[in-house]
Known about the structure:
- This protein is mostly helical.
- The protein is built from nine helices and no strands.
- Among the domains are: 86-170; 171-252.
- The protein starts with 23 loop residues before the first helix and ends with a helix.
Amino acid sequence: MGTHRPRDPAHPGAQGRGTPSCGGGPQAGGAADEPARSRAGNARLVKAEKESQRELEPELKLEREREREILRMPQPRSRAARRPVNSPSLKAMLLTRQARGHAKLGEREACLRALGAAAEFAATGPSEEDPGWLYWINSGEIAGQAGSCHLDLGEPRDAAVKFEAADASLNPADRRTRALFEARAASAHLRSGEREAGFAAVESVLELAVGVQSPRLHEHLGRTADDLRSFGGGANANALIERADLLLAQGS
């Protein structure tokens, strides 16, 4: 008979089958904790975004209040301006500017009230009280300003109708004003999805803008070109964009 030897505890075979290896526990725990760490990270990001929004909210509120204050702010009066304003054209012009401010703030009802009052003053026609430099105030100008208001309010179809009315009332010789409103009319048609009408308006403004030196017109034309780019392209759209870009590059 052979001599019985006790099993060596240091020998690998001494470990039971159910005994885990010394490295297995921590590795398994790390994998299990990964989703928890991910959720915690996402929660921190959401919290940071909410805190950032809360920090910016007072600034945004203050900016909106400043815009409203501009609308309410009385203008400085010189001695010559202390008498009551009896000029219908001046009142109409001031009311259209007020309407534009309301439109940019999204205050639709106040905007429409100002536009209605402006149209009433403009309908009275020229007056001896009108300053000479306000010769351009007429029903076409009011209609064009109304179109710009509707465009700022996100109502491009209503804007297109107003711009068409403006074009019918403007002096054909006033190329700059006609080009300004035609550029905005093009944007209104394009934003309404009216492809043919939009392209026709762009064609018209490109013809009117040749030879007209006006930074404001170039700004409007640039926006119209951007509306064309966002419309989805196509041979006709690309050709009009190239013509607009060339006109802007030439500065004419």
